[in-house]
Structures are given as structure tokens and as C-alpha cells.
């Protein structure tokens, strides 16, 4: 259990009276869903054209990029579905809503991307060992069109890439963009010099770049699933700010986690000077957390310090006290 301080022995078994306030969810999934759907239609159309051209030109770069774009269609379809599910309100079965669907979709898409990179890498190595002639002009023409299309889609998605789900979809499209660029360079080199190995070499280089970005996003999404403290949030800084509210003696059992990319939740125990101050303290804490830290879903438990000789499971300095305490 992640906490800034273990719970004091004196409060074990204390009945928990949780106080909540309204949630302010800043969703952009509606616009993001439309962008994903348009991107899906464009990518599937181009993937078919590129696959036929790659087969006729016998280009590893084009065939690999076509396969990549086909799986991107699946990824974008899943991302669009996750964006729509994320709009559903909380229910008795899913009290937090379905915001975590976008995280699961992102994990699936990243794993799919890793599979694509592996397949392209294996085929590129095979082409290096057993070179095949590539039709350079066809590669240049198709890849140039694909580059412009992927650039337009990337710009469309960048405006809405706020969630893990949309970032994973954008990662697929950026991979396509780099793949098209690699195919253009390969075609130019082949036409100019006749050196066919440039085609699989560039495929390996682009695959390495995509692999790095995929692993980074995978690490972030797994961190969310493990209820880690959200990136950019300092647990100690939040606790100290909460402890500085007048009437609060200390803060402990503090937890902060992400329900979804744009929805943070917090729970904590607050030791008070007087229980009668709790309504005003609760209002101040809610305002502080929402305005300064962007945390709208808050569960706080008030406690009175009635044990002058307290024992702690950890060092007393781990307790977040008021700065003047």
C-alpha cells in the first residue's frame, strides 16, 4: 500500500465516513472519437492500395508498411470503440465508469505494435541475407502519397491525443509516417544507385525507433494499471499543501491514482484540531486539490488526535504535518 505514513495505531478500526464532491471530468473523447474514425477510413483505404503496389514492386518497405497500416486500422478501430465506451457514465456495476478501457486499449495497441516491429525485423533480416530486386519508381510514388496521407492523419490526431488510448493510436500513425519516409528514401537510393539492401536496412532503423516509443508508452500504461502515482504529481507536495490548510494537524494514508488519463482520484486521512471545523476544512481541501492539482475525485476521512503517546509503524518524520507544527 503506497502511503506517505502508516496509519497510527490509535485510529485502527475507526469507522470511515467518506466525503465526496462532484466530479469534474474534462473529457475530449467525443472529438477524439470522430478523429479516430476518419483516420480509420483513410488508413484502411490506403493500406489496400499500398499492399497491391508493394506486391507488384516486390518492395519489402511497401509491403511492411501496408501490413503496418492494416493493423493500424484495427488499432484505430479499437481506440475509437474505447473512446466511446469511456463516455459512459458511472453505474452500480462500474462505479468509476469505464475510463480504464482506454488504458487497456492502449496496452493492446502497444503490444500489437511490438508484434509488427518484430515481424518487419525478421523479414528485413531475411531480405539482407537473400536480396531481391525492388521497383524503385513504384516505391517512390506510392510511398510519397502515403507520407502525405499519414502526415494529414497525424496532424488530425495530434489535436486530440490527450489520453493513453489516443496517444497509442497516434503512435501507430507516426510509425506509418516514418515507414513511408523510409520507403521514399529507399526508392530514391535504389533508382540512383541500384543498391537494393537499403530497403530492409531502413526498415530495421524505423522499427528500432517505433520500438523505443512503444516500450515507453507501455511502461506508462502499466504504471496506471498498477495504481501508481500519476506522472507529474508529487505525492509529498500534495500532502504538504493539504496539511497547510488551517485546522489540519497532519495528513497520512495519502493515495493518488489515475482512473483514466484525465481523471485523478485521491484518498487520505486528516487529523484535525477540532471536528467542528470539518465542513470548512473539507471545502478548502476540495478547492485546493481541484484548482492546484487537477484532482476532482476526493475521499477524505477526518480524525481527532486523542492519543498523546502515539506509536507509528514508520518514523514519525514520515507523517505530513503542518509546516509550522
Automatic annotation (TrEMBL):
Pfam family name, one: ZT_dimer
GO molecular function: zinc ion transmembrane transporter activity
Gene3D superfamilies membership: Cation efflux protein transmembrane domain (1.20.1510.10)
Main location: membrane
Membrane topology recorded in Swiss-Prot or TrEMBL: Multi-pass membrane protein
Cation efflux protein transmembrane domain mapped to chain residues: 37-226
Keyword Repeat attributed: no
Spans annotated as Disordered: 1-27
Residues of the Cation efflux protein cytoplasmic domain: 230-303
Listed transmembrane segments: 35-55, 61-82, 103-125, 137-157, 169-195, 201-218
CC annotations in GO: plasma membrane
UniProt keyword Transferase present: no
Alphabetical list of InterPro entries matching this protein: Cation_efflux, Cation_efflux_CTD, Cation_efflux_CTD_sf, Cation_efflux_TM, Cation_efflux_TMD_sf, CDF/SLC30A
Keywords for this protein: Ion transport, Membrane, Transmembrane, Transmembrane helix, Transport, Zinc, Zinc transport
Biased composition (Basic residues): 15-27
Subcellular compartments: Membrane
Family: Belongs to the cation diffusion facilitator (CDF) transporter (TC 2.A.4) family. SLC30A subfamily.
Name the record gives this protein: Cation efflux family protein
Species in which this protein is naturally found: Acidithiobacillus caldus
Amino acid at each position: 500500500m503506497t502511503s506517505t505514513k502508516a496509519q497510527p495505531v490509535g485510529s485502527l478500526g475507526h469507522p470511515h465516513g467518506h466525503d465526496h464532491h462532484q466530479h469534474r471530468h474534462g473529457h475530449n473523447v467525443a472529438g477524439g472519437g470522430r478523429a479516430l474514425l476518419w483516420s480509420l477510413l483513410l488508413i484502411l483505404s490506403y493500406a489496400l492500395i499500398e499492399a497491391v503496389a508493394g506486391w507488384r514492386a516486390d518492395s519489402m518497405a511497401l509491403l511492411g508498411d501496408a501490413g503496418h497500416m492494416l493493423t493500424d486500422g484495427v488499432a484505430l478501430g479499437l481506440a475509437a470503440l474505447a473512446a466511446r465506451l469511456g463516455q459512459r457514465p458511472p453505474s452500480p456495476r462500474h462505479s468509476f465508469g469505464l475510463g480504464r478501457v482506454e488504458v487497456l486499449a492502449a496496452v493492446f495497441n502497444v503490444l500489437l505494435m511490438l508484434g509488427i516491429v518484430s515481424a518487419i525485423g525478421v523479414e528485413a533480416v531475411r531480405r539482407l541475407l537473400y536480396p531481391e530486386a525492388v521497383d524503385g519508381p513504384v516505391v517512390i510514388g506510392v510511398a510519397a502519397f502515403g507520407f502525405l496521407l499519414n502526415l494529414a492523419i497525424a496532424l488530425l490526431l495530434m489535436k486530440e491525443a490527450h489520453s493513453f488510448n489516443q496517444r497509442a493510436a497516434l503512435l501507430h500513425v507516426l510509425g506509418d509516417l516514418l515507414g513511408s519516409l523510409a520507403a521514399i528514401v529507399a526508392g530514391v537510393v535504389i533508382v540512383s544507385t541500384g543498391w537494393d539492401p537499403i530497403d530492409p536496412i531502413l526498415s530495421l532503423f524505423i522499427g528500432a525507433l517505433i520500438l523505443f516509443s512503444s516500450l515507453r508508452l507501455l511502461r506508462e500504461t502499466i504504471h496506471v494499471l498498477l495504481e501508481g502515482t500519476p506522472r507529474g504529481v508529487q505525492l509529498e507536495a500534495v500532502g504538504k499543501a493539504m496539511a497547510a490548510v488551517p485546522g489540519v494537524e497532519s495528513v497520512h494514508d495519502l493515495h493518488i491514482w489515475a482512473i483514466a488519463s484525465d481523471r485523478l482520484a485521491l484518498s487520505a486521512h486528516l487529523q484535525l484540531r477540532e471536528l467542528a471545523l470539518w465542513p470548512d476544512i473539507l471545502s478548502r481541501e476540495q478547492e485546493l486539490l481541484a484548482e492546484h492539482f487537477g484532482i476532482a475525485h476526493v475521499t477524505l476521512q477526518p480524525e481527532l488526535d486523542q492519543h498523546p503517546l502515539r506509536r507509528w509503524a514508520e518514523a514519525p518524520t514520515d507523517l505530513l504535518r503542518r509546516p509550522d507544527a
